[in-house]
Structure formats: structure tokens, C-alpha cells
Amino acid sequence: MEFLQNTYRTLQTSVIPNISCMLVFYIIISNTVLVLSANTGFECSSVKRVFQDKGIHFSDVPKSPLSGDPLRICSAEASCCTEQAEVMLKTNARQRHDHMVKASLITLSSVLKTRSQKFDDFFKELLVKSKKDFHEMFKRTYGIIYEQNSYVFTDMFEMLENYYAKGKLDLLESMDNFFNILFQKMFTVIYNQYKFDDRYLGCVSEHMKELKPFDDVPNKLPLQLKRSFVATRTFAQALSIAGEIVANMIDLSSTEECARALLKMTHCSTCQGHQLKPCYNYCLNVMKGCLAYHSELDTEWNNFVDAIDKVIERLLGPFNIEMVVEPLNIKISDAIMNFQENAPQVSQRVFTGCGKPVLGRRRRETDYSGGTELSLETLQFSKSGKSHLEDESELGLDKLMKDIRLKVKDTRQFWTRFPYQMCNSDSIADAPGKNDTCWNGTTKSRYDRHVTSDGLSNQQNNPEVVVETTRSISLLNEQIFALKTITNKLKNAYNGYDVDWIDVEEYGSGSGSGDGIGDTEPDSEDDSGSGMYPTEHVVPEVVPEVSQPLPPRNDEDNNLHPIPQDKTNFQQNGTSSGSSTIHTTPKMSLNKALFSYLFPVVVVWFGSSLNEWLQ
To answer: Which Pfam families match (predicted)?
Structure first.
């Protein structure tokens, strides 16, 4: 081109007329273009077809190669790309790269979220099945006594479901409350010849820890439940939030410097008439520069992978949720049987501490068998310690956990391996062994530049992409912080510590289980009376089904009422919707008190005398 410019200036200063000068210059130009075409060995029509095959269409492709000097990135001796085409090609290269990055991240995010949802669904089905088996076993074993008090156990399962779904309650305190209520109900069932008011039942509960009517079950079971539920919930949430973190990284778009490098790597060779793939090492440098900020997640991501793996060990071992949730019916039944075995000793100490209760009239519709023993069916449990549900679902849980473990382990060092993954694609770069027949950014030859090391800090020496290594990106910092947060929670769950429940809404859609397992509606049951017997109707049978995870909520007063300071006043045995307000009865007159005391005695004496006279 410099030769042509000098020739043109020489002709202008010559004595040849201007028209003759221009004619000569045109001839020289034409011959030069022919020489360029002959030397390059390609026509721009073939280049245009190559771009069209890639879905790139522009109309200003010259018929023959022109000088590439005006081009900013794809400058060359001869090129079929104009400045306008270069701008379009840069946009195309950037969009293509962002699309491939997005596809990879969506795949990883989907893997994590899908596994989280599978685990979440598995646990919910396990809990529903356990609830159903509990109901069937207790109905078969305890009959009408269980049916009339089934809400106590229904509320326990509802509490466990809500704890898993929301975590906004103290599980240990809730289970302690459950066993206190169970103790009260069992006491009133066994000694149903007596009338118990709230004050007396409160006194009964006060002696529970001292008497240990259920043996060690109230101490061991809540701890086992809490460790397993905390680990299970944290595990499911952590997987889901990790998927959200990956999805959020899609919004981290490529830089302008990256777009320039991508154009040079993917399209400049085509502009020069070459149909070459980039050299593998050349691609690595470009991708390491373009994905430099993504690599900043790698350290915390690896910590997350390690923490998940340790929690899986716990969930397959001592924190196994199946081993805790499924045999709830057996463990609570054992607790009840322990109470029955020790009932005489327990009652004696209760009567000593709380006083002898008043005899009450038994209701005909709830005529239980006499004595202190409940009518029980002998149950045969597997000597291996494994129950029916466990045998059915053990393989499912084991398979699911192993699948999750493998998938998560495969993501270790994902962010530093990301550039290699991109360049391993046959559509992006040539194979590593083809060093002499690939595009090196300038021509068809070996790529001799040094491949930079992994990580953001090393990209300051990247020969292909200018990377601002000190740049602070809020989106990236937020994802790093989120990874640190869930990793710390996983570590706490692994060690059996309490975990502050994660607000999954902060990270997007979350695990999908934050709304609980189902909707509940208040029961319309009449709550009047002692809460032990129905007044005008029998408590309806509750048969939990898999399709209806949450049973109807019972409004029975399950609160424990403390003993009032004034021991002369008694609580009315009324109903409550959650309050434990103490109601006092007006003091009796002396005559009324004597009548209330002597009348039953006289009736009993008269009945006994009449019976002897008839005999």
C-alpha cells in the first residue's frame, strides 16, 4: 500500500495529464488487487459463505480481499472484513461466548437444584409415611384410647413438618411439651376413675422429670430428632442455594477486553480466508482472561463441596433421618409401655406429691377395661432393628445420597477448570496435539506464548486479555459471601450444633419447601370438657394419606398449666386456643362444701347396704 501511495504522488507531479495519470493509477491498483488475490489464494465470496454458515450476515463483504490495515483487531495484509463487519463480528463472538457460559452454568445449577428437590421430596414422603404407619400401629394397638387422643400425636408430626419447613421453633422445647402432654393424657386414661382438673395435671407434669415415667425416651429422642432434622434441612437448603449462586453468576457478563480477544480468536482467521480453529493453548489464555472473575469463587466453592461431603457422611451414619423418623411409632410406644410397667410406683409418688384426686363419674361411652393396664396387642419387631419402611426405602436413600455425593464432588475446582472445559469443546478450539495446523491469533502456526496460571491474580500477565485484577464486583462478592455462609452452616450441622435457618428468598427461589408441606385448617371439634373424652361426639378418625401430608389441626388445649400460687384456688378445666390463663372458681360456702363431700359417701354407703340386703 505504501508503494501505491508513493506511485500516486509521483504521477500527480509528473507532466502527464491528469486523466492519463488516473488511468495509469487505476491499472496499477487493479494489478495489485490481482496480485493480492493470487498471493492469498482466496476470494471473499467463500469467506462470506463461511460467515453465513455461522449465522452471520452482513452486506458489505468486498468481492476481493482488501488491505486489513484500517481494522482495529483483525488487521492483516489482506482481509475480507471491513470496519463495520469487524464491529458486528465482535458482538457475535461476545454473544456466542456468553451463551456457552450461560449454558454451562445453567446445567450445573440445575444439577444442584434437582438433587436438592429430590432429597426434599424424599424426606417429606418419609415423614408422611412415618405418620401413616404411626397412626395405623397405634390405632391397632391402643384402639379407641388412641383415636380419642390422636390429636396429640398429629400435632407432634405437624410440629416436625413445620420445623423442617420453617425452623422457627425450639424442637427440644416442643418435644418436651409433647411428652408432658402425653404424660398427662396417659395418667388420666389409666386412672380414669378419678377426676383431674388443670391444677392437678400441672402438678403431675411437675413430677415428670423426677419420676421419668417414659424412661430415657424424652431425653434421647428429641436430641436425635434435632441433630437429624438440622442436618437434613441444612443439607437440602445448602444444595438449593448453591444452585442459586451458580445461576446468579450468569449475570456476570464478559468485559470489552474479553470481547476483543474473542473476536481475534474466533473470526479474524476467517477474515483472512482461513478456516482454522484456535490453538488449544491460545484458547486457554483467552478463556482464562475472560473467566478470570469467575475463578474467584473456586476457593469457597471447594470448601462448600468438602462441607457437603461431610454432612452426607453424617446423614448416612449417626444423623440418618430414616433411623430417627421412621421408627417414631416404636420409640413412643416403648415410652408408653415403660410408663405402664411403672404405673403403680409413678402414681403412688404422684398421689403423695399432688394429693389423692377426687373420684369422678366414668362416662359410659368411654368404658375402658378396668385396672391400670391398657389393652395392648403384642407387636413383633424385627430383631435386626430395621423396620418395614426402612427396608423399603433404605436403598432409595442410599442411592440418592450417593448420587448427590458424586455429582457434588464432580464440581470440585469447577471454576478453575471452567476455561479448560470451554476449550475442550470441539466447536471452540483445536485439539491439544494439533499445534502446527491451528490459528495462533496471527496466522496458521504454532502458538508459542506462555499459558498463564489459574486464578485472577495471575491474569495480570495474560498475553491475550487485559484483566483488571483489582476490580471489585459486587455481584461476585455477594456470591462469595453466600458460599461462606452456607459452608459455615454445614459445618455447624456436621458437628451437631444449632443452625440459624437460612432465608432462601435472599438467594432466589430457594428450595421450594419454605411454605411448608401443606395447608392446615382448624378442626371444628368441640373443645369443651377435660380434653380427654368427647362431650357429644367421638373424635373423628384421622387417617393420614400421602396425598394429604398435613392432618387437620386440632384446637385442643395442649398447654401445660402451672400450679397457681394460691393452692386454695383451682383452674377450671376449660378450653383454650393457645393461652394458659388460670381461671379461679369462687369459694364454696361451708354447707355446700359439706354437702359436696358427704353426698357421694352416703350414696356409696347406701348402695353397699342395699346390695348386702338383696343378697
So the answer is: Glypican
Answer with the one of 70, 95, 120 that is the final residue of a domain: 95
Task: Tell me: do 104 and 72 sit in the same domain.
Answer: no
Nearest to 126 by CA among 389, 332, 313, 318: 389
Between helix 328-341 and helix 217-248 the angle, nearest 10°, is: 160
Determine the Cα–Cα distance for residues 327 and 345; give it in Å rounded to an integer: 28
Task: For residue 441, count other CB atoms closer than 10 A to its CB.
Answer: 19
Q: Which of 483, 510, 527 is the last residue of a domain?
A: 483
10 and 60 share one domain: yes
Tell whether 601 and 478 lie within a shared domain.
Answer: no
Check: pTM over 0.85? Answer yes or no.
Answer: no
C-alpha dist (Å) from residue 492 to 131, 393, 484:
29, 27, 12
The answer to whether residues 436 and 309 belong to one domain is yes
Three-state SS letters, 101-153: HHHHHHHHHHHHHHHHHHHHHHHHHHHHHHHHHHHHHHHHHHCHHHHHCHHHH
What distance in Å separates the CA atoms of residue 149 and residue 147, rounded to the nearest whole number? 5
Taken in order 527, 531, 533, 538, the sign of the CA dihedral is positive
- Cβ-proximal residues to 379 (8 Å cutoff; 6+ apart), any chain: 137, 141, 333
Grid cell, residue 66, equals: 482488501
- Domain identity same for 470 and 602: no
Phi, psi for 608 (deg, rounded to 5): -65, -45
Say whether both 6 and 90 belong to one domain.
Answer: yes
CB 378 within 8 A of CB 350: no
First CA to last CA distance, the chain: 140
- Grid coordinates representing 402? 450417593
Instruction: Kindly report, residue by residue over 282-325, the tens digit of the pLDDT.
Output: 999 999 999 999 999 999 999 999 999 999 999 999 999 888 99
Provide the residue range defining the domain that includes 459: 97-111+253-313+408-483
Structural domains counted in the chain: 3
The amino acid sitting at 139 is: K
**Rg value, the chain, Cα:** 40
- Sign of torsion, CA 548 553 554 557? positive
pLDDT tens figures, 197-239: 888 888 988 888 888 999 899 999 999 999 999 999 999 999 9
Residue 173 belongs to a domain: no
**Cα 225–chain centre separation:** 19
Q: Is residue 420 part of a domain?
A: yes
Number of Cα atoms under 13 Å in the Cβ half of residue 144 = 10
Residues 9, 89 within the same domain: yes
- 152 pLDDT above the threshold of 60: yes
